[in-house]
Amino acid sequence: MDAEALTPLYTGAEVRQAEAPLLEAGEGPQLMARAAWGLAGEVAVQLRHRRGRIYGTRVTGLIGPGNNGGDGLFALALLRRRGVDARAVLVSDRAHDQGLAAFRQAGGRLTQSIDADVDVLIDAVIGTGTSGGFALPQVPGLTEALARESTAVVACDAPSGVDPGTGAVAQEVIAADLTVTFGGHKLGLMVGAGAQASGRVVVVDIGMAGELARFRAEAARSRSVVAAEPVTPAPRRQDHKYSRGVAHVVAGSHRYPGAAVLSVRAAVQTGCGMVTLYAPGPVVSLVTAAQPEIVGTTAPEIPPRATAVAVGPGIAEDPGQCAALDCALDWAQRTGGRLVLDASALTLLAERGEQLTAQLPASTVLTPHLGELRALMEAAGRKDLCEELEASPVTAVEDFAGYLGCTVLLKGASTIIAEPRSRTLVHRVQAPGLATAGSGDVLTGVLVALAATAGPKVPLAEIAATAVRRHGQAACRLDPQGRGGFGASALIEACNGAAIRASAGTFD
Ligand SMILES: NC(=O)C1=CN([C@@H]2O[C@H](COP(=O)(O)OP(=O)(O)OC[C@H]3O[C@@H](n4cnc5c(N)ncnc54)[C@H](O)[C@@H]3O)[C@@H](O)[C@H]2O)[C@@H](O)CC1
Ligand SMILES: Nc1ncnc2c1ncn2[C@@H]1O[C@H](COP(=O)(O)OP(=O)(O)O)[C@@H](O)[C@H]1O
């Protein structure tokens, strides 16, 4: 994955540090003007989308005492000049002086409550200056506005109640439909409960990219959001099936034969030299019928030509699969080959208690969802990290990866991928249709195929991020409106490597 394919993620504190020299140089008002311009522009898009016009629509801002409130007031002033009925509720006894003056001058009106016919509610109570807990301001009409479909809630920089550094949310939060954030992507809007409360996130460039870049260069540990399709390995002219990479999959059981079909078909569609499968005989027959190019085996040993192995989808309650897991762990330990452990393989690992930490080769990636991750953390004797998962999901996943000495990929609406001594990658996708049985099996298939074909120098976390992005892209392709009308099988065709390579860089 090349550097351009990754967009950095910042904590609120990092953005504040990066902007400090600009503020010292007296550039604060310009930064705020650009932030307000960006916010007003995005609100205007919402108004046009919802009401078909801007003139005569109604926007109310909840205005806090700091610069976040200042952004809100300047944005309201700009909207007022475009004919919007712009109102502001001051939630504190202080407000940004120049912002308030601009708002008044533009003809904005102060009010004490939020009316039922407001089109957009701007949350400009707190941004990166947040500290401590957060309680909803006592404003008549606020609770109703937050619940009303016809009122869009747009957060200024970060939803009030979200910690922009971690993704933790306070007991109360102003959940947004859209967050317009300034300068760069903020970590807390991309992961955990913070991501849920942020809705769609738009980043507005306010002219501090240089400062952020310099700041990043100095940062000891960097985190990135995966923003573009990285270069993925296309077959070379001289390749033969074994040089291209062999993905071996341990999946499926009498109880869950379909998991093997899904993961193996996804690996084939992603594209590699060969896909082999270890499963009980009837499952091998079923998968071969669905995908005749695969090579099935009923012996748990890892085929000698395998270049990556995945163990887990649907192997529950099959005693032979436990032996296969041990073969795979041993194989990865001996060869340094890439190993993907998913689903039931994670349950089997968790059953080994604290022993599990000793058994994981560094070339392993674990792909748990939240429940599986908690179980693994508890089994490994790291219950403390379960609590950290709420307060700071990225740190918790990073700490666990460090503790285990292998890569951990936490699945969900936001995926967090932490590899020890590497930068952490976050992928946030607007594809709720992925919450369907078997979609994780598809991800495992995509991942093992990419792991089998990627060159030895590509870090495992970056391969995993590519798989996650493809999986998300496939869902967006199938279901652009996010209505959820597809099953995991349909995802497989959309993960097709050739089609994705052809459109690389054009899809987002
Ligand atoms: N510094 C600048 O000139 C710029 C600042 N920007 C905006 O300014 C924001 C940061 O401004 P500030 O540093 O003034 O901080 P904020 O405006 O985000 O918040 C600080 C204020 O909120 C109150 N507050 C903090 N935590 C609270 C809580 N839990 N419950 C209730 N009230 C709480 C504090 O009393 C403080 O007065 C950014 O998020 C961004 O929106 C942008 O305009 C870009 C330029
Ligand atoms: N709300 C959501 N939005 C986006 N992606 C999601 C959402 N819920 C789940 N996913 C993705 O769908 C997949 C589900 O995997 P998993 O929980 O293992 O399901 P299964 O075991 O049924 O295959 C993961 O890749 C996860 O990141």
TrEMBL record:
Superkingdom of the source species: Bacteria
Uppermost EC category: lyase
Tagged with keyword Magnesium: no
Sequence positions that bind (6S)-NADPHX: A259, G314, H369, D441
Enzyme Commission (EC) number: 4.2.1.136
Obligatory cofactor(s): K(+); Mg(2+)
Subunit structure: Homotetramer.
NCBIfam families in alphabetical order: yjeF_cterm (TIGR00196)
PANTHER family: ATP-DEPENDENT (S)-NAD(P)H-HYDRATE DEHYDRATASE, ATP-DEPENDENT (S)-NAD(P)H-HYDRATE DEHYDRATASE FAMILY MEMBER
Protein name (Swiss-Prot/TrEMBL): ADP-dependent (S)-NAD(P)H-hydrate dehydratase
Organism of this sequence: Nesterenkonia aerolata
Gene that this polypeptide is encoded by: nnrD
